[in-house]
Here is the input.
Amino acid sequence: MSSLGPNLKAIVAAIALSVTSWLYSTSAVRAQVLDQVQAPEQGQVAPVNLSSLTEAELLDRLEASDPTDAMALDRELQALWSKSGSPAMDLLLRRGREAMERGDWQLAIEHLSALTDHAPEFAEGWSERARAFFHADLFGPAVADLEQALALNPNDYNAIFALGQVFEYFGDPIRAHAAYERAKAIHPHHEEVTKALDRLSVDVDGQSL
Here is the structure.
């Protein structure tokens, strides 16, 4: 990838100031998780229909989940966050993702730019375009899109993980570690986050986070 130039350093520094504030802020109190419903005839605990839960309830369950339950909760949250509310916008998201699967980053950026233009309040569009920008070595736009995605959805642990990757790539292990810890607090069983924290443990050992 290309080297980090002075202009990009200034961009990253500015983003770091704005993002670090919420990385350490106390999350708003979420709604209490619904108790599992007792089956009236056998007295057994009925399985919970995850699709019936709200985003806040899914996040609360994820925070307290075991690895097996975390996988199902993650799938439900990703499906929820991928719904723009518009079939046309969902199609643009799907086409952008398909282009990224093929490694066609420029086409992905085109589809996802159309998505962010027409649905600027849809966080997933910004998050996915950030991924396409990063792989296309367009780091400034990638950071700006991550900032926008997290402003719209501060609980998107994948976007927070991506922010950590950006900080790590730019040689800032302490901020990267802080971002990874924030992502892990939301999704304790995120494998890539866990690997990243293990990888950086030596770099940040003994340093103030």
